[in-house]
Structures are given as structure tokens and as C-alpha cells.
Amino acid sequence: MDIHRCRFIRYPASAINAVAFTHSSLPSVSGHKKHTQKHIQVRLAIGRANGDIEIWNPLQGAWHQELVISGGKDRSVDGLVWVTEPDEEMADGKVIHGKSRLFSIGYTTTITEWDLEKATAKKHASGQHGEIWCLGVQPASNKGAATPGSRKLVAGTVDGNLVLYSIEDGDLKFQRTLTRTPTKKTKFVSIAFQSHNVVVVGCSNSTICAYDIRNGTMLRQMTLGTDMSGGSKNIIVWAVKCLPNGDIVSGDSTGQVCIWDGKTYTQAQRIQSHSQDVLCLSVSADGSKIVSGGMDRRTAIYEPIAGQTERWAKVFHRRYHQHDVKAMASFESKGVSVVVSGGSDANPVVLPLRGAGKEYHRTLPHLPQNAPLHSAPKAQFLLSWWENEIRIWHLLNPAQKLLDDPQAALGLRKNRKLLAQILVKGDSHISSAAISEDGTLLVASTATDIKVFQLDFAKGQHADQLQIRKVDMVTAGHSATKVQISPDNRWISWAEEGSRVMVARVHITESAAGVTYTISHPSRLNRLRRQIPKQLLLGGLGSYDRNITQMAFSPDSKLFAVADLAGFIDTWVLRGPGEGANGTGSGDDEGAASDSSSDSSDEEPEDVAGEHWVRNPNAKLLPKLSAAPVALSFPRTQREDGDYDLLTITAVKTLLVFNPLRGALSEWSRRNTYPKLPAPFRDTRDQIKGVVWQGHRAWIYGVSSLFMLDLSQDFDPEKDSVDGKNGKKQGTKRKRGGQEGGAGGKMEKHSLAPQRVRTAAGPDGAKWEDVEMADADDQKSVGASSGVDDDDDDDEDTDGGELQRLRDEQGATVTNGDAAEAGKEGVRAAKWWHSYQFRPILGIVPIEGGTGLANGNVSEDHLPPLEVALVERPLTGEDLPERYFGDGEWER
């Protein structure tokens, strides 16, 4: 595999402004614990400054980003709250867990409810008040479960108003203003509920106020005084939380965390734990821990002092973030106990809560699970998008040509050209985009529309030119969360409203004036009806897990597959006029579209004029996956028996290869079960993002890992774990020392002893070498020879350095070779291989001899070399705002 190592693709990091879990801890319903622990759907919502909302599934520590609801122009998510309705018991004794609803604010006068099933906004509500700066949800009554929908939302505004919003009967509307402050200079900055009817509000005038929401009466006003450190006269209470015993915790602009008696509303303790403002707080479900984050990048943990009633002490603090810590939320269950924090550096950080000081933290990637990256392999085009902008790049020469000719005037850094920038009109950001393999058709989707463009690339004498023309498409009422173009350019498919599969025929007309594309009226492809328990559909997140996350066409464009978060795979086959699903001419077979076998009764029939898509007769034989799939891919070639190999990888590292026309696992997959896969692949915490096929080799990548698995050979964990050169076992299973809490691994004893050190060596620090920790002289040599990665977007290094880097990266640049050549590079004949040397990987896409061919006639023995573009997107200082420094701190 030849690699174009690219860093010129722009993907600015967007700050995290809000985080929220569906539950701070799993509810304990008397007599229903077995249902609660097994079926309740726990999710983490992350709101970003660009308006994006991400939904994450903890997965007992696997942390899978399931959904991204794209933002829009001048939008920001600055607050998130979940509202979970009470559980209900059915007549048969089964429990319907309460519906979970997600609400957000963005420093406007509007509250928005989000429909996760359709991945779009559901309702908006606003009132006659100023901008909303904080939002809280009324907890259930202590006397028992509240009536569904009877709880309220309470918001604090910039003009000092406390306002009430009703969410009864699934609605969202402004109800009334509870209280007004005498002066509009007072801002309500933070909010928390002390009990069902008492809300605590942190203000900008050095006060904390407690209100009774039944009549708007102020119960008590607590004063912090003035800032004595030379700052502003007023202290801003950026965060307030309430402990289970009713005590109040506040964090303010002086860097102090204060504890207040919940009965007398008097200050019990003041802890100076930050050198700058405390911006966020979180408390454990049992009230035994407090966590704070601030502008000084510190995250601090507090625990009660042994033997001293209601006295707290800071246990320790760390700097897990590169910038301000702006938001955090905690979640606890039997297997997971974590705090998730976020801020301006865009990376969510998972901290152990129950195992604080005993487990490592974990930093989740700021890059999306589905890469905003696509390619046209035959045209050597690279497509990327961000917000409303699409960029099309042309990689001029193959990487192998540059490697063979070191004196080439055209270096790797100059081996690219920006052909076009497309700005998609509208207020909504691009949710997905795709380009055809020959680079002539481009599709982009937003939350409100689908845009199709025709690309004409002509090489002129002076410069390459790309002409872009819009293609008309009947898209009224259509939007998409994911789009795909078939390898033969004849079909466009997309996921609509999260779970609906749509397809439209592309008609190609050739004339003297050139080639013209027209799009037919879209049709809906019916999915199989799945047997999902009624109590799951009526409660929790409803049918959210039927959202489609993966789509793939076969190389010959005659088979189409989709997969959803629940782990169901649906497949369709392309038939000619009069052919049924079995190709016999009968349209009454079980694979044809029918309302009785679909998800709902109002589905549209498939287009039966000419070629049409029908359900694969054996689609129902494909089993439900154990977890959500993170990759779905076809190889370049079709099997000799006319079937296909469909590879899928789940969020828990289960790798399966199906033969979809037979509805069965492939023989290789039957032999190579999960325990037989290489240990480094099974044990890596890096979530898989995608797959690129080359013959029988599958190149699987995550944010920081790249694996090659040879799917023509069987794995033997015992033999494969031995390195032929030194006889040492490789890839041994990580010792976890018992159950983990959902963050990093457990700290082993003597973990502070000297550890193995690796240093960056070679040109531009591209190669990592182990350093022997023998004496001080070795340490000095490390400092003298270590390199520094260049993180700027333009790759400002010499062409010779780029060429030498590719030559040195034996693990990264792997070419096809027969058995006779295998001795030159040991990795060629290996059954599997992996590398962690790349910086955060935005995506890997094929550039030449891509993942699909229109005719599908390329044999395994005559495959062209695989060439890919590997796009790295490190988080650089250019993506971060200015940072404030405390006393004695210097910017390095």
C-alpha cells in the first residue's frame, strides 16, 4: 500500500460547551433492577460551539460516537439537559422505561428539543425574556414518581429573570416568568435543583439565590462578598451543584469552591483550589466526591475529611486539558463510574470517579467517527468538507512515481492542487457528502436539502480546470444524514430521517454538447421488520437505534447494504425489468417490497420501471450484530461463486465477513472467531473508523491505529504472537486487574517505576525508537536526537524529507509482492500487522485502483497497486483561542 500522507486538509477543532448524561446514575426501581440494568439506554450528549451535538454510547468503556447532529450558521450549543420520564409497568409485568428527551440552549431566547430518531430539531420555544444562560430540569418528587410530563424546565436569563417552560404531553412551550431581579445588570449564570420545588441560581453579582418555583419566592440569598485578589468587584458564580443531602456546592471567578449548608443556607467551607475561574462542577451520585474544572486547565477532585463531619479537602488535581475546562458531567452504574469533561481544546476527557487515583484517564478524539472525507480513486480527487464548505483537491502524481524518482522536481508537498471550493447555501451545515469514483458527480446533504453537482475536469495547456454545474433533483422535503453514490454512477442513495433508505436513478445522456446528468424521482427501499420488544420502542430513546450509520455498494453496483445502530443489516439486489428477487421474472417473491414486511405501514413501493432494487431473499438470515457496526465494506473483487464478501466491524471489535446472497457467514469468518483475532486488534482502545480493501488484505484504521489483516489466512494466536526475529511474544493481552470503571485501565502496583521511553527519530520525527534507560548519558542523547513534529497545515518541510520519510516507514508504505519478494520486507508475508505511528487520523481513502470497479472483472492475481491518502488532523495551537495564565505560568 502506497500512502499519500496529507495534513493540508482543514478541520478546525470546535470547543465543547456542554456535556450531559441521560442519567447521573441508573435509577433503582424496586423489583425492576434486572430490567433497569439490562435495557436502559444510557447516552452522553456533547454540545459544541459550532452547533454540533454528538451522541456517545459508553459501551462499558468502549465509547462509541453514534450520531452527530450537524449545526448551522451562527449556532452554538451552550447548555444541554436530558429529561427522563418515570417508568411505567405493563400489564404483563414488563417495565417501560421513561422516555428520554434532550433539550439545548445557545445563548439565545430559544430552547430547542432534539429528535434523536430523525437526527434533527423537533421543537423550538421562546418567551418574552432575555438570552438564556442556564437551564435546569425539575427532578421527580420525593413522594413518588411524578405524572409523565409534569416536570418543568427552569431557565435563567441574562437580564436576571427566572422563567418556566412546560414540557407536558411531549410539548415544549413558555409558561411564565417566575421572578425578576430589581436590576437588569444581574445575570443568572448557573442553576441547580436542591429539591423538587427549590432551585438554586448562581448570579453575576456575588450572590447565590434559592427560589421556590411554585410561587417564585426567594427563600434565601447567599453572598460571597467581593473579589479580594484585585479582580472584578463582583464575583461570578459560574457553577452550582447540589449534593444528595441538600448541601450546595459553588464554583466562582475567584477560583474557589464553596460548600454551603443546605438547611441554613450559610457558608460551611471555602477551598482555594484553582488559580483562575472555576467554570464547571460535578458531584457523584452518593455525594462522596466533588469534581471541579477551571480556566487554569486544572481538574480537581475533593473528598470528605475522615473523622470531620461535613468537611472537605482537595485530594489532587491534574491538567488533562490544554485549555479551559468548560463543562463536565458524571455517570455511575454497576460497571461504569466516570466524569466526562470538555472545553476549548475540543477533546472529551473521561476521568475515573469511583476509581479516582486508581485508574488512568482517557482522552476521546475530537475527530468525528465518520470522516468528512471521500475520494474519486480513478480521478485522484480528494473531497473534504467542513460546515458549509466543500473542497476538492487533485493529487497530481502517484506516490510510487515520486519514490522511484528521488530527483523529481515535483515533491510530495507540491503534489496537490486545490481545484474548487463549493459553498452550499443555507443555514444548516453539511452532514454528509460523496463523490463518484470517476470524479464526475458530487452529492452533499444538509438537514434541509440534498444538493447534486456535475463536475467536468479538463486539462488545459496552462492550468487544470474544473467546471461545476448543479444537477436538478426532486428533493422537496428530503434531507439526509448519510449519502452514497454507486461505483457505476447510476444510483444515489441516502438515509432520510435517520432510518429511511432512499434511492434515486442517475440518467446519463451523451450529446455533442457533452454529458448531462438527470436524477429521477427517489424511491424508498423497504427494510425488514424486526422483532423489537414493545417496551423498548415505547420507552427510553424509542427507535433511535434504528438510525443508519453505514452504507455500502458492491463493486459491480448490484448489491446495496446498510447497517444501523441496533446491529441490523439490510441488503438489496438490483434486478432488470420483470425480474423478481431471485431473477426468475416473478415479482411476488418474499424479497420484493411490501408493506407487510417493512418497518411501517406507509412505505412507498420500489420503482419497478426498468432496473429496480428488491430485497435480498436471504437478507433475514443475516444475524443481528452484538453492537453497533463502525465499518461496512465490500472488497474490490467478486467471489467466483457470484456472491460477495461483506465485512463488518462492531464497536466492540467483533469482525465478521458475510456472504449476503447466501445469508451466511463466510468460511473464513467461521474459522476465525473473535478469540482468534490478533490480540492487539482485540485489545486496542482505539475505535475503528473505516476499512480499505486491497485484494484479500483489509486495512483497518482508527484515530491513532492502522491494522492490516490478511483475510485469506487463518489466525493462530499462539503462533502469530511470536516474533520470528527474537522469539519474543508480541501482542500479549493487556492485564486489566479486574473490572474497570469505564475510563482508562487500572494503575498497576509500582506504576511509578521507570517505564519504557520512546523517542521520535529520523526526518521530521517520523519514526519511533525505544530508548534504553541505562544511565544519564543515554538521557542526554535522547534530548539531543529527538525530533519535533511539524503540525502546520502546509507541511513546511523539504521534499527530500518527505521522500525519505516514506522510504523509512516500512510499516506505513507496504506494496504488493509475491512470496519470492516477501523476504525484502517482512510485513508483506505477515498475516497481520499494525502501527500506532500516525498522529490523529481524520480518514483514509483510496486514490488509485480504489475500493470498487465498475466492471468488477479485476482478478486477485492482477490487482493494481493500492494507493491511499492518509489524512492526519492534529489538534494545533491555531485551533485554540487565547489562553489566560496564572501567576508563575509561562507559555512554552
Automatic annotation (TrEMBL):
GO terms for molecular function: RNA binding. Gene3D superfamilies: YVTN repeat-like/Quinoprotein amine dehydrogenase. GO terms for biological process: maturation of SSU-rRNA from tricistronic rRNA transcript (SSU-rRNA, 5.8S rRNA, LSU-rRNA). Residues 716-726 have a biased composition (Basic and acidic residues). Residues 788-800 have a biased composition (Acidic residues). InterPro entries: Quinoprotein_ADH-like_sf, UTP4, WD40/YVTN_repeat-like_dom_sf, WD40_rpt. Residues 727-736 have a biased composition (Basic residues). This is Quinon protein alcohol dehydrogenase-like superfamily. The lineage of its organism: Eukaryota, Fungi, Dikarya, Ascomycota, Pezizomycotina.
